[in-house]
Amino acid sequence: MLWSFLAWKVLKLSLLISIILSLAFMLFQLLRIDKILFSLPLEETLPFLMLWTSYSLFYFMPTSMFISSSVVFFELKDSKKLHVMESFGIAPYLAYSRVFVRCMPIFISLMAISFMLREEDVSFMRRYLTYKYYMNVVYSVPEKTFFTLGDMTFYVRERNGNDVSDVFFKKGESLVIAKEAHLDSDAIVFTDGSILVKEGEKFYLTAFSQYRISLEKFVSVERQQGNLKRDQILNLVNTALSPLLMTFGFFISRVITDAAIKLYYLVGVLSILYQFFLIILKSLL
Fold first, then answer.
1. Largest Cα–Cα distance in the chain?
2. DSSP state letter for 108
């Protein structure tokens, strides 16, 4: 019963820490996509938010288990409870091993989840929402107004449903000016105009009778297979290190530190270093 209680305490604290880290990370990232999320219907953004939250909780769980293991066992040592166990012939390392065994289902679950949740899945959903947002912007730009979104600028003088006239469209280094355009389901079809394109250090101006631009050209809505393989390896490394991180947390609480302030400082620094390790590993894959 005691070992199950300690295992539950480690798990509960790990979940709490993972939630805090996930919220901090997501709030920081939310500043970049807040317009997209708040402008689309809830039924479109909710699946993304659920997937994003689930992945963030999973991603930070190994780090959280390292932190919670060090904190829980330090509290046991600091409150002399480990000494009480030792007086009954239960060594601290034996106590940890029994808690560790009861945490094995957590490690197995994390390994299973690593095959189902990948960062590319979250990125794919984000790109899809961005694509939907671009479509909404293009379809709702008011007359005689320059509307800019990122590196895209769109202007129409008159609008009649999905048909517009005197159109100005700029995306990156490409500029299109046309007398008319039709807003298709996933593209803009320009009629009687010209396109200015920069290639290298030169600009090229070309007239056209009809020119079609697919919005998917600007926002890819396909999963990148290379990124999926990269994320799979990163997930496996992160989850495989969970038992080692938890054990290292116990080792720190037992051997290295003898004061709470030292423990919190050391655990915080090591957690940040571990995140840098994952970032560097991701860049190398």
1. 90
2. H
